[in-house]
Amino acid sequence: MAGPQLAISATTADVLRHSPLGEEALTPQEHARAAAFRRRSDREDFVAAHLLARLVAARVAAADARDLHLVQHCADCGGPHGRPAFQGRPDLTVSLSHAPGVVAAAAGRHPVGVDIERLDATPLPPEAMAHVLAPAEQRRLAEAGPAAQAVFLRTWVRKESLIKCGVTDLAGMHRIDVSDIPDGGRYDAKWHILDWWTTLPTCVAAASSTHPLHLVTLPHLLTRNRAAA
Description:
alpha+beta; globular
């Protein structure tokens, strides 16, 4: 039986160490993209995110993760990037994200988007804030004091997750305001937003969908996948 909409995050090291899938699960397109990274750590983040996306989607679809072939195609330039999907599975949606040493993924039967950022990420230059934040968000950030970076990143991952759902784009980020949405709340009455924090390293993540999302851990996901195999 297919599961609910799921979101997950984990360290890159944990995914690569414990995943029942190896790099052989990647498509030639993914292998080519992975090989283009100059730093080994960036390559490992890419691989781990693409493996985690398969694992969480397999749980949602009650399928074998080895049978899920991830494809990406940019509608603008035709390049091998853009919104991910599974070949031959229009019923299954997926989103993925990675930051140094950490990865996140979400999957379901309805539009999903996910983003993760490390708290120690380089702050965005002040002059760029007006292009990213709505006026109310800028005011909240100005009042945040020492917590400004955490406040900004929580806002950022929410907006990125909505972008991946097609709600807006980078140019329109400043037109949407997510500053007053409580944890587990909704944007524009339609979009459920799930927020969570991680430690070691400290990260903030968010996933969005038209339907509620459930956060799972890597051990739980792997246990359930083995049970379904």
